[in-house]
Design brief:
The chain has 986 residues and is an alpha+beta fold. It contains 16 helices and 42 strands. Strands 8-9-7-10-12-21-22 form a seven-stranded parallel sheet, with helices on both faces. Strands 1, 2, 3, 4 and 5 form a five-stranded antiparallel sheet that branches. Strand 26 (663-667) and strand 27 (676-681) form a beta hairpin. Helix 10 runs parallel beside helix 13 (562-580) and helix 13 crosses helix 14. The protein starts with a helix and ends in a 91-residue tail after the last helix.
């Protein structure tokens, strides 16, 4: 980070003095060759004056006295870790057994006890965050249940807890209490503050691309706006309005001036939480605002991994009205997780996603600084062989002033007694040997995480390398090494180079492309997949998911590089999608962006580009037509769960209207353009219709039109904009339709279908009035008529469905035509087509289950954007055939009428000219009812299967004057339950 790089210049004299002090204090200078016969324990504990380093620490500079000489490349083939300790080097042993400190903090505690005048210099040399007699630490406890007790003990020792999440917390503690705190029961590890890193600073300065992209005229506007086609969406009036984006970063500067110059949202749409100490976050926020200038924004800073997780949880726990829709992160924390998508920060992200938040995360810039492999030691000397006999992984031409960080972990999570140590070596051309420049020698004795880490300021330019020693392990583990601000690894693996937390399955991970055509991949862009379970080499989660733009200009930074700049482009694009499609859920936003992305690399989703280059395509166009949503009617209780779009998610409206005695009906009863609820009582043919989707008395009641011999249907039969009632008589295939919601002789009577099929109603040709259809569950055939009369089918769809699916109809894309769909009631899966043809579903999601009847309707009126989604189920034929083999009678229960499972009458064929008639016979008229009436069932609790929408807790509105005039006593609609009123949701 910039301030740390400046500080290292002033550390040189201090580093020299402290190095000499430790050399004399410990008197541990020895030759690596002289140790050949020493015990393994002595070999392993050897180190420089820097000792074993914790993450973020700077080592001492025992090597600073060695002049820089070009190394003899012939010596590389002769090198051996057995000859490493020649020269003026000091040694720091592993921490005292039973004291769960990193070796850096253990050394600090030793200096405190031996010569307190040297504590400040020592701490500064290691990059420890010290103030007076206090040092900042991150504490990991064994489990969350003991966290409170450990925190109380830390406070008792004089510490102050400053951030916490689950079983981790940050604290400022007295240096004198480090050993006591590291010895507390339940403590797994005490380390220097686990700082987050920004994902552009890990690209070495001289390795960054510097393409001359120039500044936009008039204002600083990222070139990614044009590259993604976001400017076309802006021109169409889509700017992210109503969407809230939280930018999670290390800090933000010059916020007020950036607001005044129009680079960030005005005060009415911007909230700042946390530090104003870094420019990185400001540059990230500018890109989000360039992409989506209508957004509300929250600027949230986090300095450590614990703070990062805590901030994510805090944002996720905001009330619905203020909770961010998107969190974008271009920072990461190392060595806190296994790389399989679980752990400190990843778990917090999973929680946020469960609250309906889209989390965009930079994939990382470590493609050239990464290695994984199973520990291999063919010569049995305890050192890992990277290739053949080579026990060093080099990086070349490190320069003075570079602040090099190397992190190591292995697959023994979360705590382990499998102990490996990490060494940083420097080639000494004077001796032809590799000297230890720094090491990390923390204990892994059963309660510590499987990690080691070194941070090192380069004081002597030259050749450096990584070496790994097995201190005490019973098996060969998967070793995972990642460097930051290093040069390229000699033995490097671009795959599995994702940083944490870019590995969870529910994160929208972002790779980096150069913003200039042809949009080449940035060489450093981290690639997937994630690590396997526990950090294994099995194939992990598929990341990244998409590629954004790097090397762009902002007012804060010109030539902003890294996946840091790529990620906010994706967050801003997601805000535009949510502005256009406010009913979308997180999966649908991601699916939209992935489906529009310009494919790059391997066809389809891959581990380098994800779905491809971020490209929004043409903006959607508003349509005056309706776009139907979905719903579920819980048959046991009369609960309605309505969503305003055909998508998964929480109910937009919830009410109780009806009960187990009722059959649900839906229609626009008053012509206001909004469909609303109703129920039909098959015991007496009564209809109870509401003009709004909330609880209350019926607005329209029709008595005695029907009975248990008929199935209720509704539609706009005459094209006047009002839906009216009707009946389908399965025994004869007769339709009896009324053009008004009142009792009387049917206005239309004709036969089409029979007991072998389900009645359907829809506007198949877009002429403004509804007409009929029949679905045959035996073979999944659909027979649709464009007029309400006897005749052949105008549209025939063959084989779309079977007994496993309940037929549904709706206008899913707003084109004014109703099309077919299926509800697989055993799984709650909706399989919807945008055309009345056979093919894979255009929309496929889960909502509900076998406890409810599916419904469709336009619950919030016309004027929404058209949804254009790709097919979700390319294997539809196989799915259809497999499911069609199931012959399940409970479909009839959804209709409240037994179905004839026999074959279709011979005269009915799949020909477009097929005449859908049945043998005439005596049947009740519209004014008659059957003698046998059904008995109302008592209210029951709705089965809460995992796929069922969760009820929304509400409060009852004040009683109204008409509430007593609901339904007859034996069929009263419940209105005293907490769920009895309508609620608007997400």
């Amino acid at each position: 980070m910039p301030n740390r790089r400046k500080r290292s210049v002033f550390l040189y004299p201090v580093l020299m003095l402290v190095g000499l002090f430790l050399i004399s204090a410990f008197s541990l200078t020895r030759s690596r060759q002289a140790q050949a016969a020493a015990t393994e324990e002595d070999n392993l504990s050897a180190s420089t004056a820097s000792g074993a380093l914790a993450k973020e620490g700077f080592p001492l500079a025992g090597l600073a006295v060695i002049p820089t000489v070009t190394p003899d490349t012939d010596a590389f083939s002769q090198r051996s870790p057995e000859a490493d300790l020649t020269g003026m080097l000091a040694r720091t042993d592993k921490p005292q057994p039973g004291v769960n400190l990193t070796s850096t903090l253990a050394a600090l505690a030793s200096v405190w006890n031996e010569n307190r005048t040297q504590v400040l210099e020592f701490a500064q040399s290691y990059g420890l965050e010290i103030s007076g007699d206090w040092v900042g630490v991150t504490v990991t406890v064994a489990n969350a249940s003991v966290a409170e007790a450990v925190k109380a003990s830390v406070v008792a020792f004089g510490g102050v807890v400053v951030a916490e999440y689950d079983r981790w917390f940050d604290a400022q503690v007295p240096v004198a209490a480090l050993v006591d705190i590291g010895s507390l029961p339940g403590v797994s590890l005490v380390q220097s503050l686990a700082r987050v890193m920004v994902l552009d600073g890990d690209i070495p300065n001289n390795d960054q691309q510097t393409d001359d992209v120039g500044l936009m005229a008039g204002t600083h506007l990222t070139q990614g706006v044009a590259a993604s086609n976001a400017n076309a969406w802006h021109s169409a009036g889509i700017d992210g309005s109503g969407v809230t984006v939280a930018v999670l970063d290390v800090g933000f500067v010059n916020v007020a001036s950036l607001q005044s110059s129009g680079e960030l949202p005005p005060a009415s749409r911007l909230t700042t939480l946390g530090s104003a100490s870094a420019s990185h976050g400001s540059a990230v926020a500018e890109i989000v605002y360039d992409m989506a200038p209508g957004v509300n924004m929250i600027l949230v800073s986090a300095g450590t991994g614990v703070e990062m997780a805590s901030r994510i949880q805090e944002l996720a726990d905001y009330p619905d009205a203020t909770r961010p829709d998107i969190i974008t992160s271009s920072i990461h924390a190392s060595n806190l997780e296994s790389g399989d998508g679980t752990g400190l920060v990843s778990d917090a992200i999973t929680y946020a996603v469960s609250k309906g938040i889209l989390f965009t995360q930079a994939a990382g810039n470590s493609a050239q600084y990464n290695w994984q492999g199973t520990f291999s030691d063919p010569d049995g000397n305890g050192w890992l062989n990277f290739s053949g006999t080579d026990e060093y992984n080099d990086f070349y031409n490190e320069q003075v002033g570079d602040i090099l960080t190397v992190d190591m972990r292995w697959n023994a999570w979360p705590v382990t007694d499998q102990d490996y140590d990490l060494y940083l070596k420097r080639y000494n051309s004077l001796t032809g040997l590799w000297d230890t420049a720094a090491s990390s020698l923390a204990w892994q004795s059963g309660s510590q995480s499987p990690t080691e880490s070194i941070s090192f300021p380069i004081l002597v330019a030259g050749q450096y390398a990584i070496a790994i020693h097995m201190y005490s392990a019973t098996g060969n583990h998967v070793i995972d090494i990642m460097g930051y601000n290093t040069r390229f690894f000699e033995y490097n693996m671009t795959d599995r180079s994702l940083v944490d937390p870019a590995t969870p399955v529910n994160v929208f991970g972002v790779a980096a492309l150069n913003v200039m055509a042809p949009y080449n991949l940035e060489y450093y862009s981290s690639r997937g997949p994630g690590m396997g379970p526990g950090g294994s080499l099995a194939t992990g989660n598929a990341q990244p998911r998409i590629a954004g733009y790097a090397n762009v200009d902002t007012a804060t930074w010109s030539g902003f590089n890294g996946t840091s700049s790529a990620t906010p482009h994706v967050a801003g694009a997601a805000a535009l999608v949510w502005d256009a499609y406010p009913s979308f859920t997180v999966p649908l936003v991601k699916s939209f962006l992935e489906s529009r992305a310009a494919d790059m690399g391997t066809t389809g989703l891959d581990s380098t580009y994800g779905a491809g280059r971020l490209y929004l395509g043409a903006p959607p166009v508003a349509t005056p037509g309706v776009r139907d949503g979905i719903g579920i009617y819980a048959r046991a209780t009369g609960d309605w769960y309505l969503r305003t779009s055909a998508s998964p998610g929480s109910p937009s409206y919830q009410l109780i209207y009806g009960g187990a005695w009722a059959t649900p009906v839906v229609g626009d009863w008053d012509g206001d353009g909004i469909d609303s609820v109703g129920v039909y009582d098959p015991s007496n043919g009564n209809w109870y219709l509401r003009n709004t989707n909330n609880v209350g008395a019926p607005n329209v009641t029709v008595n005695g039109f029907g009975g248990s011999w008929g199935l209720p249907v509704s539609g706009d039969w005459d094209g006047n904009g009002i839906d009216t009632i009707g009946l389908f008589v399965p025994t004869t295939g007769e339709w009896q339709l009324r053009n008004s919601n009142s009792n009387g002789i049917p206005d239309l009577v004709f036969a089409y279908g029979g007991a072998w099929g389900y009645p359907l109603v829809g506007d198949w040709d877009g002429d403004g009035d509804d007409s009929i259809g029949i679905y045959n569950p035996t073979n999944g055939n659909w027979y649709l008529r464009n007029s309400n009369s006897v005749g052949g089918a105008d549209i025939v769809i063959t084989g779309y469905g079977g007994w496993w699916g309940f037929p549904i109809v709706g206008d899913w894309d707003g084109d004014g035509k109703d099309t077919i769909g299926l509800f697989a009631y055993q799984t709650g899966q909706w399989l919807l087509r945008n055309t009345n043809t056979y093919g894979p579903p255009d929309i496929d999601f889960v909502y509900g289950g076998d406890w409810g009847t599916p419904l469709t309707g336009d619950w919030n009126g016309p004027g929404t954007f058209v949804v254009d989604l790709p097919a979700f189920n390319a294997d539809w034929d196989a799915v259809s055939q497999a499911q069609s083999a199931q012959r399940i009678d409970s479909v009839g229960d959804l209709l409240r009428f037994p179905l004839d499972h026999g074959s279709i009458p011979e005269e009915v064929t799949t020909s477009d000219e097929a005449v859908m008639t049945a043998t005439p016979g005596p049947f009740p008229t519209a004014m008659e009812t059957m003698e046998i009436k059904s008995t109302p069932l008592p209210p029951m609790a709705t089965p809460q299967a995992p796929e069922s929408p969760a009820p929304i807790e509400t409060s009852m509105p004040p009683a109204t004057a008409d509430s007593a005039a609901a339904l007859p006593d034996q069929h009263t609609i419940p209105d005293s339950t907490p769920n009895g009123n309508m609620q608007e949701g997400n």
